[in-house]
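>> received
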Amino acid sequence: MNEQTLKETTQLMQMVGRDIFLAHLISSHGGNISVRVGDELCITRTGSMLGRLSDTDIVVVPVEGPSECDCEASSELIVHRALYQATNAGAVVHTHSPQTIFRSMLEDSIEPIDSEARLFIPCVNVVQSKKTVGSAEAAQLLAAELSREDAAPLAVLRGHGPFSTGATLLEAYRWVSVLECSCEQLNMRDMMGKPLKDYLG
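>> returned
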């Protein structure tokens, strides 16, 4: 990867990482993001703060792996690699979105009630792994889910949060944002305990 491409990719990851933190989709040191560039991927460093990423918080590793830099990368590197190998994604975003995580502990699939999500992600599946962080099982389950022809561009690991793919980092971020808003509305509906008026004809 040439120096200019790395610089531009780093700046984009810093911008999106800050947006993810400000949107309350992670805690101070939670979540991870990556961008694929050819046969390599740029991924956030383990223990880094997405809201305050420095240039040294971006680790470059091969998509296929392994490499000597793997230990520096996010503990979710195994999942990111699996998603790149199973799909044509150009970027992966993983957040700890609180409303989405809560919903994942109630349902096996999340079906939004708002018009934006119904249009783009009408059903998002939840997968469950015995180990949630840096799990080979989770990587396999998520890759299988997101590689299906009719799959949404993201899935939720129960109790841990969504993993989203996109052609670009901004697109992958969009899907976790849309899903979080949808889950908040679903959780509000349940809390209110009142029937909703359908707006679809």
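>> The chain has a mean pLDDT of 97.
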